[in-house]
Design a protein that fits this description.
The complex is a heterodimer of chains A (97) and B (337). Chain A is 11% helix and 34% strand. Chain A is mainly beta. Chain A has one domain (3-92): Ubiquitin-like (UB roll). The longest helix of chain A has 11 residues, at 34-44. Chain A is globular, with a radius of gyration of 13 Å. Chain B folds into two domains: 27-275, Rossmann fold, CATH 3.40.50; 277-329, no CATH class. In chain B, strand 4 (82-89), helix 3 (96-110) and strand 5 (114-118) form a beta-alpha-beta unit. Chain B is globular, with a radius of gyration of 21 Å. Chain B is of the alpha/beta class. Chain B has helices at residues 26-43, 61-76, 96-110, 119-123, 127-134, 139-158, 169-182, 185-191, 213-222, 238-253, 257-267, 295-304, 316-321, and strands spanning 15-16, 23-24, 52-56, 82-89, 114-118, 162-164, 195-197, 203-205, 280-281, 288-289. Classes of the chains: A mainly beta (97), B alpha/beta (337). At the A-B interface, strand 6 and strand 7 of A face strand 1, helix 2, helix 9 and helix 10 of B.
């Protein structure tokens, strides 16, 4: 089965949940959707505070998601079918400013 | 699937507006975002030509976007404002010292004069020292009370007419919910006002009162603005956290809920027979206060006398013992700015 190469980036303070690493390259099996990617990240890249990222099977409200530079609310949200080379960005809005 | 912008009908849509549900492209987003803030400024007569305006700058997303947008609008619409960046250094190692570095970069990027006032110079206590005394339970009270006053004092040093802060629609809706849950009617009335004036006669306003946090963050992201995003090392305000989680859950179901709450907050009327605290001047420092001694002076007195609990919660007995007047309610602090 072919593999999808996905670029994942965390911003707005979310990188702190991932050892302060902003950019990650993740391979997902063909046919995966965004929900699968989020579950994968929670189970494989996080050792603590998973609830600050995932809540009720989706990202915690207040985290913005961009799929190839566009708001995920424009592209089927959590059900979005991943494509090879996609760039997915998670930005926290939860910090004072 | 690529969607087209509903405004220009040409470019690829990148954002769904929480306020209207419209799908719009990057350029149209910049235009509507900036123009709405311009209208908020004009419709509420926030500024007069020649005003000296200090932007309360924390280095975070809201104040960074505010500095960028005000600088842009001042040039585009020729408001004739003299803009400054004003920052408060609470003395929190690993948090504020880092975020002040961001503010210093913003100073260069936006070519605005910067003034930093510190708790250390104003109160002779840094937050690091205060936390050593009071622990992690009530430290946010000290910080909130001192910060509000520090901004005013910094503004007085700069001789400005006006302070603008980056409070956004989400912050204001949260504050309304908090004040309702706590039954704090005086603050419920004040928190929805777009402009307030304190004793110092320096106006304070919130040009982002109707601006969604989502759009502020998207704007900062698309414009690649340089902002700082780390949680304060001394733990966030827990009560605000609950209000925030609740609000974000509401927003996920119906994004207009945020503006609806603001509108409801504005519509609250307090019965005229309800006795409200009268604003007076602190006998010690001259700052506005609802008591003889202002909150900052009570807290400071406690710190200096080794009685840090003096100004916290229900402490009338303790205060009487130590000969400090006051019968006031526990203070509610605004942490987001």
């Amino acid at each position: 089965m072919a593999t999808l190469h996905i670029d994942v980036e965390f911003g707005g303070g979310m990188e702190l949940l991932f050892k302060n690493v902003r950019e990650h390259k993740i391979d997902m099996p063909e046919g995966s959707n965004l929900k699968d990617l989020i579950t994968y990240i929670r189970d494989n890249l996080m050792t603590a505070k998973q609830d600050l990222f995932v809540m009720n099977d989706t990202v915690r409200p207040g985290i913005l998601v961009l799929i190839n530079e566009a708001d995920w609310e424009l592209c089927d949200g959590i059900e979005y079918k991943l494509e090879d080379g996609d760039r997915i960005i998670f930005i926290s809005t939860l910090h004072g400013g | 699937m690529v969607k087209t912008c509903v405004i220009c009908d040409a470019a690829r849509a990148v954002l769904k507006r929480p306020k209207t549900g419209q799908q719009i492209c990057k350029e149209c987003f910049y235009h509507v975002f900036e123009t709405e803030i311009h209208h908020t400024i004009i419709d509420n007569h926030l500024f007069s030509r020649g005003d000296k305006v200090a932007i309360g700058a924390s280095g975070g997303k809201d104040s960074t976007v505010l500095a960028h947008v005000l600088k842009t609008l001042n040039g585009r619409y020729n408001y004739g404002l003299d803009l400054f960046l004003l920052s408060v250094d609470e003395g929190i190692t690993g948090y504020r010292d880092d975020s002040l570095e961001t503010v210093k970069r913003n100073q260069q990027q936006y070519d605005l004069p910067l003034k930093i006032v510190s708790y250390e110079e104003l109160y002779h206590w840094t937050m690091d020292e205060i936390v050593k005394e009071v622990g992690l339970k009530n430290n946010c009270t000290f910080c909130g009370v001192f910060r509000r006053q520090a901004l005013d004092r910094g503004a007085a040093m700069l001789d400005v007419d006006h302070i603008v802060t980056g409070h956004n629609a989400d912050d204001i809706a949260e504050t309304i919910l908090m004040n309702i849950l706590r039954g704090d009617t005086p603050r419920l009335q004040r928190c929805t006002e777009i402009v307030t004036t304190g004793e110092s006669l320096i106006r304070r306003s919130k040009p982002f009162k109707y601006t969604y946090e989502k759009e502020i963050v998207m704007y900062a992201y698309f414009k690649k603005l340089d902002y700082f995003s780390t949680e304060c090392t001394y733990s966030p305000n827990a009560y605000r956290g609950y209000a925030r989680t609740f609000l974000k859950d509401l927003e996920a179901i119906r994004p207009t809920a945020i503006l609806d709450i603001i509108q409801s907050g504005e519509a609250f009327q307090i019965k005229t027979e309800v006795k409200m605290p009268v604003q007076q001047t602190c006998v010690r420092c001259g700052y506005m206060s609802s008591n003889e001694l202002c909150k900052a002076c009570v807290l400071l007195e406690g710190l200096n006398r080794g009685l840090p609990k003096l100004g916290i919660g229900k402490t009338e007995r303790l205060r009487k013992q130590h000969n400090l007047q006051v019968s006031e309610k526990p203070v509610i602090t605004e942490t987001a700015w």
